[in-house]
């Protein structure tokens, strides 16, 4: 596939200008790479419009404080448009840098505290695609991939105020490599919400299981039983 790719240096220079109020079109910054059928740029154009509309509705709504909730809902919008993209494209940070620029308004809003003119090191992690659990658009794709069950993305946005849950206990740990287990963990948290101080030791017990058990092969029943067992451990 021929697809758009954006160099790290180009993205950082473009983003600096955007933060300073000198935002320009990204069209002159990226280039086509690869071979074969072309990635459908028009699909991204349509998604950008959806993202912008949902962001406007959300910021004017009653749940404007829960930014992670909108991230989950839009992850479910993003994923279907990209799920058939070849793996070599998905693995290319340049592709996600391009998408970071295209979805700039949402990315900037989602991590607004990090985007300051004088500290590129603070915000680049959210756009350069070098850390899959931090780059906003890439982590949204991963989130939807993990949550998808029988065509349903509900689990991507099932946890209210779920920033720490998703980043610390799903995306940044091996649980992300076992969708069945991750889905069971999401449902467990949805039904039996634990506060942060209780969730962390619970999640740590789950993470330690990877040292001795191949959790990737667990089915729904196995995963649920394991989580109940770990939840009921008395310290």
Supply Rg: 19 Å
Order of the strands making up the biggest sheet = 1-2
Kindly report how far apart the N and C termini lie: 53 Å
Instruction: Give the mean pLDDT.
Output: 93
Structural class: mainly alpha
Beta percentage is: under 5%
Total number of strands: 2
Main pleated sheet: 2 strands, antiparallel
Number of helix segments?
A: 12
Domain count:
2
Shape: globular
N-to-C SSE string, H for helix and E for strand: EHEHHHHHHHHHHH
Uncertain regions: pLDDT < 50 for 5+ in a row? none
Report on the architecture of this protein.
The protein has 235 residues and is an all-alpha fold. α2 (41-59) runs antiparallel to α3, α3 crosses α8 (136-147) and α10 packs across α12. The protein is globular and about 55 Å long. It is built from 12 helices and 2 strands; from the N terminus they run βαβααααααααααα. The longest helix has 19 residues, at 41-59. The protein has helices spanning 8-19, 41-59, 67-82, 87-90, 93-102, 104-110, 120-123, 136-147, 163-171, 179-191, 196-209, 220-231; strands spanning 3-5, 31-33. The chain has a two-stranded antiparallel ribbon. Helices cover 56% and strands 3% of the residues.
